[in-house]
Amino acid sequence: xxxxxxxxxxxxxxxxQSYHVSxxxxxxxxQRPDGLLRNGAPVFVTAVLSAGDxxxxxxxxxxxxxxxxxxxxxxxxxxxxxxxxVNKPAGLAVHPxxxxxxxxxxxxxxxxxxxxxxxxxxxxxxxRGTSGLMVVAKSGYxxxxxxxxxxxxxxxxxxxxxxxxxxxxxxxxxxxxxxxAPDSLLRREVSLSGSPARTAYEVLETKGAFSLVRLVPFxxxxxxxxxxxxxxxxxxxxxxxxxxxxxxxxxRPALHASALTLRHPMTGQWLRLTAPLPADMQALWEGxxx
Length: 290
Fold this sequence. Notes:
By secondary structure, this protein is an alpha+beta fold.
């Protein structure tokens, strides 16, 4: 119901400014006869609203690629009607790969949990080898709302990583653009022609040949944390693409999404979630490289 404070606004202004409905979503709403209803009747987005009006908005989810549901034991850290936060294990792909057959994916596990009609909306993505906190939206509208605050003070992520050597200085920011390596479909590299990329780091502890570091990405480039750490001479332990693979130590890059701070896009509630270091990284750290 339209409040006295909202009266006098157009439908478009109300939806864009108060509810952050994207222009793409507005376009879809205008194309549906039942997309926007005022007091039960279709209404134009230019219509001026009055106090007491009832505005019905059909925010239908958009179709996504088909996802085959699978049975997967999800480590759910937080959930409500709008968002799901899971602690993804290392070795689990987020999406099915075009190059390999995937017996199980996070997308399939989410579909199995929420039902086959769900559309998978990962807000932040983790590489197959990266463990930790991932946010999944339960609708396209919430996904859009989350994307608008990604890499802002309203949506911040922190990682724990174990790297080779010790970064110097102990606290700093790597501000180096990242682009695709010309000789690889997968590999990325620091490149003047790449996209801007910034990562803050802090050395938490050093043990033997390794350091435990906290990493905070300010941008979201592919492999950003791995590329930036390698670029300062401290690649992640186990990073087969940007460092040296040694499966005796760990079977994947030692990277874990350990903390999440998020202002809920609907309620305004602050979510502060953490995920402890997984067993393989804990064993690596306790071994100290020995």
